[in-house]
Design a protein that fits this description.
This protein is mainly alpha-helical. About 65% of the residues lie in helices and about 5% in strands. The longest helix has 28 residues. About 40% of the residues are buried.
Length: about 500
């Protein structure tokens, strides 16, 4: 009979497989599934998440962990086995307090809410989405009640699901350090008259699709292992290292899909380069959503908005859209994609104003969880914060409180990771350029393998063996810090 460690690995492989199948079903719902299939998908996901939870919280798992305590002390702390036991123990002690029926109902509510959100967003009708949101928040609060014992704040429970071993107070402190300099920089830069009108116009989506595939091929991946599909709100998913599925949203009047594709490429590459020998274990997954976001923002901004990249790729873009860009030189184009203009939509925001969008959502989510706001009042509070933070008037809920998919999917506690990852991306890029002094020249020549390899070695290959901050420290020599990000923004924009 296999020993406790082998039995634990076998059980975790099953749980990991179930989780990947759930992701595949969710991807299908957001890309391929006929709209009328919602009820079927809700049942399927509810069953799958219930089974996954039952397999993970089986008392046998607790027995394996207890039996492994003596051996755990003799293992090297950085070893794969020590990391697996450490991670499973932490997650088991949290999950065992949650009924499987609640896990199933949370999955069902999210699957049912998504098409409601899509329709509500299109019609700018928050009232039609409100019952779905109320149900999702009700279930989330039940979940918090199950595992909040010992938490400093109720929101800590939800944040921990996305950014493990991170406290709300820590994120709040980081954001408080970022906010005043960002507000000042936005005020300074918004007064500049930058012509970016050429970025709006007639950009046929069929040509955008060709560019999206061209960019991902240029950045690089193993043949036959990726696909790109359109969706309402871009995301990356997939059930394995060699089955990576990224999505984008083609707007016929803009080139936003190009940056969206580069963003999702970063997410996809993280999955693509995770450690093969740990693929069916929880330690082989992504470290956190903040670290995940650092990868997407690095490719979208540090690479995708850089001068070397556009010196390489701009002639190709001009050839694709000669009517719009044929008379726009590289300097005008670079100025246009670096224009700072407070706007309505987070995923379309420039680098400087982006952080304010995330802070707004982080604050609202805390109010939701701590009971400081009635859900029906979210649109009003959202609009007030958009005016206070960015001086932008929200014309309707579709461009306001309904713009993001996350709450419809039950992802409450998620939003802060976008800015956490954005800040970390600069530290990671700086570390990469220290180790690869000619990195920018290589980007300008279209040689992306050195960057892919560096990220693979220093971030991706670590999987989920360490906490987010320890992973960042090992890659860069430092835990998260606001100043490098602020310095980068000022150097790039001011």
């Amino acid at each position: 009979m296999a020993d406790a460690l082998e039995q634990l690995k076998e059980r975790m492989a099953e749980v990991t497989d179930l989780g990947k199948v759930a992701r595949l079903l969710s991807w299908d719902q957001q890309t391929m599934m006929p709209p009328a299939g919602t009820a079927h998908r809700a049942d399927q996901l509810a069953t799958l998440l219930r089974l996954m939870h039952e397999r993970f919280t089986d008392p046998a798992v607790g027995s394996f962990l207890e039996e492994l305590r003596p051996r755990e002390e003799s293992l090297e702390p950085d070893s794969d086995d020590a990391a697996l036991i450490r991670l499973v123990r932490r997650e088991y002690e949290k999950a065992v307090n949650v009924p499987a029926s609640l896990r199933a109902e949370m999955a069902r509510a999210a699957a049912e809410a998504r098409p409601v959100w899509v329709k509500a967003k299109a019609e700018s009708d928050f009232a039609s989405f409100l019952p779905s949101l109320e149900r999702i928040v009700e279930l989330k609060l039940q979940y918090v009640d199950c595992v909040a014992d010992g938490a400093d704040e109720r929101y800590d429970v939800l944040l921990d699901d996305y950014e493990p071993q991170t406290k709300t107070a820590e994120v709040r402190t980081l954001f408080e350090e970022l906010k005043p300099p960002l507000v000042a920089l936005i005020a300074e830069l918004r007064e500049r008259d930058v012509d970016a009108s050429f970025l709006r116009g007639d950009f046929p989506p069929d040509r955008q699709r060709d560019l999206a595939h061209e960019v991902t091929e240029l950045f690089g991946h193993r043949p036959g292992s990726w696909r790109i599909d359109p969706t309402e709100h871009p995301f990356a998913s997939g059930p394995g290292r060699d089955d990576v599925r990224i999505t984008t949203n083609y707007h016929p009047d803009s080139l936003e899909s190009l940056f969206s594709t580069m963003h999702e490429y970063g997410h996809g590459l993280y999955s693509h380069q995770q450690p093969k020998h740990l693929e069916r274990l929880p330690t082989g997954g992504p470290c956190s959503l903040g670290i995940h976001e650092s990868q997407s923002r690095l490719w979208e901004n540090l690479v995708g908005r850089s001068r070397p990249f556009w010196q390489l790729f701009y002639p190709r873009l001009q050839a694709t859209y000669p009517e719009q860009l044929g008379e726009v030189d590289l300097e005008r184009f670079l100025a246009g994609i670096h224009a700072v203009t407070p706007s309505l939509i987070r995923i379309q925001a420039d680098e400087v104003t982006y952080g304010m969008h995330v802070m707004l959502r982080f604050e609202l989510e805390q109010d939701m969880v701590e009971g400081r706001i009635e859900l029906r009042d979210l649109p009003q509070r959202w609009n007030e914060k958009m005016w206070d933070y960015l001086g932008v008037e929200v014309p309707d809920d579709g461009h306001g409180v309904l713009q993001d998919v996350h709450w419809s999917g039950g992802s409450i506690g998620y939003f802060s990771t976008y800015l956490v990852g954005t800040v970390a991306s600069v530290q990671i890029w700086q570390a990469a350029t220290r180790d690869l002094p000619d990195l920018e020249e290589k980007v300008g020549r279209g040689e992306f393998e050195p960057l892919r390899d560096w990220l693979g070695e220093h971030i991706h290959s670590l999987g989920r063996k360490f906490s987010p901050q320890e992973t960042l420290r090992r890659a860069t020599g430092s835990t998260i810090a606001a100043q490098p990000y602020l310095d980068y923004l000022r150097a790039s924009y001011a």
